[in-house]
Amino acid sequence: MRPIKMLLVIMSACCIGFAACNTKSPESKKVTTAIADSSKVQRFGMVTGLKPEKMEYYKKLHANAWPGVLKKIKESNIRNYSIYIQKIEGKYFLFSYFEYVGTDFKGDMAKMAADTTTQRWWKETDPTQTPLPEAKAQKQQWQNMEQVFHTN
């Protein structure tokens, strides 16, 4: 199986497994209720490479995510945010999933990008990543993925 196809299969399994796991959590029911009250939820799946020599540092950063970064994520109307690591054919990839529950995605992302704490965080995380060619061409760290399936 080609690496990208394999990555997509794994990511699909992660999404389905992630959704199934969250339905059992009392906390996820609160999130689901809050999202159901929103006019429209936008779901995002993204992927980037991870430098193997930086993996432990990346995990350590996220095990102790900075409170200011977490606060800005919530203020930016991002909910249900997860990041996964997967090794495929000797290379490591990060897969992220989040739900946006606001009404001005571009505006909220601009506010997040302008936040000095978030900028410092990205100075720590960006050097650990290897953007995919499509993302790199657009000067982005993460490549957006097309959603092909969703169920609640």
TrEMBL record:
It holds the Pfam family rhaM. One of its GO terms (molecular function) is racemase and epimerase activity, acting on carbohydrates and derivatives. Keywords: Signal. Residues 1-19 form the signal peptide. It comes from the Bacteria. PANTHER family: L-RHAMNOSE MUTAROTASE. This is L-rhamnose mutarotase. It comes from Mucilaginibacter pineti.
